[in-house]
Design goal:
The complex is a heterotrimer of chains A (224), B (255) and C (224).
Chain A (H helix, E strand, L loop, with lengths): L11 E3 L2 E6 L2 E7 L2 E3 L2 E4 L5 E3 L4 E8 H17 L12 H17 L6 E9 L2 E7 L5 E3 L2 E3 L3 H4 L1 H7 L6 H18 L7 E7 L2 E4 L11 H5 L4
Antiparallel strand pairs in A: 1-4, 1-7, 2-3, 2-11, 3-12, 4-5, 6-7, 7-8, 8-9, 9-10, 12-13
Helix pairs in contact in A: 4-5
Chain B lengths: L21 H11 L4 E6 L2 E9 L13 E4 L3 E7 L1 H22 L5 H14 L11 E9 L3 E7 L5 E3 L2 E4 L3 H9 L8 H15 L8 E9 L6 E3 L2 H14 L12
Antiparallel strand pairs in B: 1-2, 1-8, 2-9, 3-4, 4-5, 5-6, 6-7, 9-10
Helix pairs in contact in B: 2-3, 4-5, 5-6
Chain C lengths: L1 H4 L4 H9 L3 E3 L3 E6 L2 E6 L3 E3 L2 E4 L5 E5 L2 E8 H22 L5 H14 L6 E9 L3 E7 L6 E3 L1 E4 L7 H7 L6 H18 L7 E7 L2 E7 L10
Antiparallel strand pairs in C: 1-4, 1-7, 2-3, 2-11, 3-12, 4-5, 6-7, 7-8, 8-9, 9-10, 12-13
Chain lengths: 224, 255, 224
């Protein structure tokens, strides 16, 4: 008998998610593409979602697994209602831990959830920015980038990060990174969304396009 | 209760010769003994008000809840044995979860009430289990269906209502609710009326101290079930205290 | 061709084809217009290169005004559609009103996601309901669920991305929408060996379902 195959390739995938803390919260960004192999199949797909009033999750990798994680977390939060409605909801850190246990459990069954999940939250006057990878490894940082972003955006984010970064500075920095990713990641399109997680709650922008530059083409002309 | 001593009242599995099931009637009796809870359905939502007895001075304020949530889009309020009511709301939450996991949509209130009725009714069929000693009101509000209010009784029957009252003073509470113009009232206005009714039926001379517990699910709360904010409750309580004339209506209740 | 020499006769090729799984190579699409949707599909079912059914009906109803458009393994998708139809029947009886498209699509998602390792099923779920009006959901391989203003699927759809990107408009009239769908399916039939036969299409709106067929000899020929 053939051995059972469990670890399949992902089908519909999303590319990088970027996030950076600023002085009053967190900025998270991603493009809106759901790739199907190299086919840019779904061009209007939101990869970040609000799971509580304080917590946002975003994800790279397999979209069906990402949707399943979103559903699981939403279901977990609803389960905690009953007579406890006015109690504190789950904190961003608790949500990150829950996701990490689910993902570690799946990797231990050799059937991982094919994602890199970013958890951003603002609760009790504190920013939280963390992530969970495909194996269930969890970590926190001031800047996080998944997928190709780990190579192209993370160094730029780290260089640009400072304790008292303002919101506008953070958005500018993130936009620079998104542009670099659009230039260098073949699974990215020029249609992005930026989410803001702060005291005032969570807002996710409408999709927008970034201005790109191609003047270097003139220099290339005639060369191999 | 002519069942006592006849032998027809020891399990719900046996009818009396008149066709009654005494165990179920006794279960309903334990709701009648409970302090009162009311629910009213107004133009833009549903409000629950509970007369909660303070059973100990050491109890933390706000504890011992008798309003609960099912998911975030349905509210519930109980009278009777609180523990039994909690079990029903737990069941309701589990039904809501399984419905949502399957369809990705919030369970419609009529579907939930049907399932809970059937669950409660099931507990009237076996000698090995005791019927639920509580009644539960369920309420919801959304743009499409408007406000809805249902009551599930220990026998497993359920009906939709404009207003309902359960517990010791249900009769006088109903009389008070009937005086209200429910289709015109808004939730904000109704808070005061609900508080007034609870204060009217509460017999200070006979009953223990009480705490007014109120929750709502309405346009203002965004279709979510929430406890009424403290400042609104305080305002409503003041209004109730100023406008409550007699507290003696209760004495005619259980005749 | 070299490969032919491996076979003793033409008959052997057909026999080998018969041992291939039966697939609906397929072109399927669903498009929203003002007030309703138009769904369309080719009618070819193949086992390898053998056409086992040239007049297949790939527009499979799962409720009065909700259809599933099937692509992938014929056996898998027929079974899933049957299960979803069964669930929707129970749910709508319980609710006392017709199910929503969202509900149907999420049932498809549930089965396609949970059993992804065992299925070859890519489904478009489309229809009309009183709550959301016309709606269309894609459930590609892997079991993601994506709501779209229009959806295309099956092997033939790869030839249609350009045509659809260029010609789809929101709020088309019913007539514009019908010709958009029939043109597209016709184009795919012309270029995709696994799509062919007749074009089946249907118009679904608040009034109900109106079904049509365009016979193979009436399908517009785009190349000479």
């Amino acid at each position: 008998m053939d051995p059972t195959k469990k670890t399949l390739q992902p089908y519909v995938t999303g590319s990088s998610v970027l996030a950076i803390k600023y002085n009053e919260g967190i900025i998270v960004a991603a493009d809106t593409l759901g790739s199907y192999g190299s086919l840019a199949r779904f061009t209007d797909l939101q990869r970040m979602s609000k799971v509580t009033n304080h917590t946002l999750i975003g994800g790279s990798g397999d979209i069906s697994d990402l949707q399943q994680i979103q559903k699981t977390v939403e279901s977990l939060i609803l389960e905690n209602t009953g007579f406890k409605k006015d109690e504190e909801p789950l904190t961003p850190k608790e949500i990150q831990q829950y996701i990490s246990r689910v993902m570690y459990n799946r990797r231990s069954r050799f059937d991982p959830l094919w994602n890199h999940i970013i958890v951003a939250g603002y609760q009790n006057n504190e920013s939280f920015l963390g992530a969970v990878d495909i194996f269930g490894t969890f970590y926190e940082d001031n800047t996080i980038a998944s997928g190709f972003g780990a190579y192209f955006a993370q160094p730029l984010l780290r260089k640009g990060y400072k304790e008292d970064l303002t919101k506008d500075e953070a958005i500018d920095l993130i936009k620079t990174c998104l542009k670099v990713l659009f230039y260098r990641d073949a699974r990215t399109i020029n249609k992005f969304q930026i989410a803001e997680v702060s005291e005032g709650g969570i807002t996710i922008s409408d999709p927008f396009e970034l201005e790109t530059h191609w003047e270097i083409a003139d220099w290339q002309e005639g060369h191999l | 209760m002519s069942g006592i001593g006849t032998g027809y009242d020891v399990t719900p599995t046996t009818y009396s010769p008149e066709g009654r099931i005494f165990q179920v009637e006794y279960a309903a009796r334990s709701v009648e003994n409970s302090s009162t809870a009311i629910g009213i359905r107004v133009s833009d939502g549903v409000i629950f008000g509970v007369e909660k007895k303070i059973i100990s001075k050491m109890l933390v304020k706000g504890s011992n809840r008798r309003v609960g949530s099912v998911g975030d889009h349905i509210g519930a309020s109980i009278a009777g044995l609180t523990a039994d009511g909690r079990r029903i709301i737990k069941q309701a939450n589990s039904e809501a979860k399984s419905y949502k996991d399957l369809t990705s949509e919030a369970i419609p209130l009529n579907v939930l009430v049907d399932r809970i009725s059937s669950f409660v009714q099931m507990h009237t069929l076996y000698a090995s289990i005791r019927p639920f000693g509580c009644a539960v009101m369920f309420g919801s509000y959304n743009e499409k269906d408007g406000a809805q209010l249902f009551l599930v009784e220990p026998s497993g029957v359920s009906f939709g209502y404009y207003g309902c009252a359960i517990g010791k003073a249900k009769q006088s509470a109903k009389t008070e609710i009937e005086k209200l113009n429910l289709s015109e009232l808004t939730c904000r206005e109704a808070i005061k009326q609900v508080a007034k009714i609870i204060y009217t039926i509460h017999d200070e001379s006979k009953d223990k101290e009480m705490e007014l517990e109120m929750s709502w699910i309405c346009k203002e709360s965004g279709g979510k079930h929430e406890l009424v904010p403290d400042d609104l409750i305080a305002e409503a309580e003041q209004f109730a205290k100023d406008n409550t004339v007699s507290t003696n209506i209760l004495n005619f209740d259980n005749i | 061709m070299e490969t032919v020499e491996l076979y003793n006769s033409q008959e052997q090729i057909v026999l080998d084809d018969l041992s291939e799984p039966v697939k609906t190579g397929t072109t399927i699409m669903a498009v929203q217009y003002k007030g309703g949707i138009v769904i369309g599909a080719d009618s070819r079912t193949t086992s390898g290169a053998l056409i086992v059914n040239r007049v297949t009906d790939k527009l499979t109803p799962v409720a009065d005004k909700i259809f599933s458009l099937r692509s992938g393994s014929a056996a898998d998708t027929q079974e899933i559609a049957a299960i979803v139809r069964y669930y929707l029947n129970i749910l709508s009886t319980e609710q006392g009103k017709p199910p929503t498209v969202k509900m149907a699509a999420n049932l498809f998602r549930q089965f396609c996601y949970v059993y992804k390792n065992y299925l070859l099923a890519s489904i478009i779920c489309a229809g009309y309901d009183e709550t959301d009006g016309p709606s269309i959901y894609s459930i590609p391989l892997g079991g993601a669920i994506i709501k779209q203003p229009y959806a295309i699927g099956g092997s033939g759809s790869t030839y249609l991305y350009g045509y659809c990107d260029a010609n789809f408009k929101e709020d088309m009239t019913k007539e514009e929408c019908v010709s958009f769908v029939t043109n597209a399916v016709g184009l795919a039939i012309a270029r995709d060996g696994s799509s062919g036969g007749i074009i089946r299409y249907a118009i679904i709106d608040s009034d109900g379902v109106e079904r049509h067929t365009i016979y193979g000899d009436q399908v517009k020929n785009y190349f000479k």
